[in-house]
Amino acid sequence: MTYVAVSGLSHTGLVRDSNEDSLVIGPWTLCGTQTETPQTLVFPLGTPLVVAVADGLGGHPGGELASGLVVRQLARAGPSLDGEQAIRDVLDASNRMLYQAAAGNPELTTMGTTVAGIVVIPDRLVAFNVGDSRVYRAAADGLKQVSVDDRPSVRGLLSGHVVTQTLGGHDKYAAIDAHLTSRPLPTDGCLLVCSDGLTDAVPTTVLAQILHDHQDGRAAFELCKAAIETGGPDNITLAVVQVAGPDEPPQAPDE
Q1: Number of domains in the chain
Q2: What's this model's pTM, rounded to 2 decimal places?
């Protein structure tokens, strides 16, 4: 039997007062809180498995609420996400849900979140994102970004944390066009799903080296440690996903 092992954690960082990130791994969610060590869950390959990070919009009200609502929606819908259209539908529904939650409540107007993740299906993997949270594929040929950043691309523009597309985030409803990529199920290497609290703080070369050296719970620990060592300027949330066959059982953290 083939298994999927997911090691995830979420850390407030060293600067922010609160954690506005949320994480979903199958039916399990982690919302607005912090884990000191990676949590590793192992699932048999079969029922669609969703793994995603939502990063509540900083500078907007209700970021923690927005990210939590979205990952809980993904957790509920997870077993039914058997293809690209189903994933697109749940993201559209999540977007509408945030506007509905903010309706009539001035304190929540413009609350929103980014989201990035994968759905593991027996014969393939679908990556998705809205915003600038990311999905990477780490394999023998190096680290490659699978997701598509929704950030300004004008040459010379200092975009900072400007994001051109989010779930919610506006005072009036705005539709989304989620990025989806489908590919054969990988049988080597691993995948990384993370918020920009990791990727803005840690160079891609360092991410690649850590994922070359570790592809399990230790990788999650070392990635978070690397972001903290840069000063931890933002919330850090990530999941490392490994597909393993019966002859190579998934590994738990070894720190």
Answers
A1: 1
A2: 0.93
